[in-house]
Specification:
Strand order of the largest sheet: 1-2-3
Number of helices: 5
Shape: globular
CATH superfamily of the largest domain: Winged helix-like DNA-binding domain superfamily/Winged helix DNA-binding domain
Number of strands: 5
Distance between the termini: 39 Å
Length: 153
């Protein structure tokens, strides 16, 4: 297992890799372990920086959802289809997944997202546009949304 922590425009982030793909992305308060990096982690941080600068709209770094339930995997694939520079509600995400009566399941999937930013849970809001992502500070979430929205215009 490989791990790297880096300061980004979105805060201090720790990512892990199995050597072939990104397996987790987490915001941390401080660096707690020494980096044991690899080319995948270096690529992921480079792509996040490019995303923050507005020169990247999609991620190419390989990701792995090993350990996620089949249901969560399906929700995350639908989530990844939300276009750059846009937001959708949990109800909209449920409709995109062809499960229009499951906005709570959509919200639960966003809350359990192991690789935020790359699987863009920041593009999902409560009905009416309110911030609603668990695990992200409002400031961090707003920064991610502003980056993609400002670059879209």
């Amino acid at each position: 297992m490989f791990t790297k922590t880096e300061s980004t425009d979105f805060g201090l982030i720790t990512m892990t890799s199995d050597g072939e793909a990104i397996t987790n992305l987490t915001w941390v308060e401080e660096k707690s372990t020494p980096d044991h990096s690899n080319i995948i982690l270096d690529q992921a941080f480079k792509e996040i920086q490019e995303y923050a600068m507005g020169s990247r709209k999609a991620f190419n770094v390989p990701v792995s959802l090993k350990g996620c339930s089949p249901s969560l995997k399906r929700w995350l694939e639908v989530l990844r289809a939300v276009p750059y520079g846009t937001t959708v509600s949990y109800a909209d995400l449920a409709k995109m997944a062809k499960q229009p009566k499951a906005p709570r399941s959509a919200g639960s999937a966003c809350a359990r997202n192991p690789i935020p930013i790359i699987y863009p849970c920041h593009r999902v809001t409560r009905t009416g546009g309110g911030l609603a992502i668990l695990g992200l500070s409002g400031h961090c979430l707003q920064k991610i949304r502003e980056t993609s929205t400002l670059r879209q215009n």
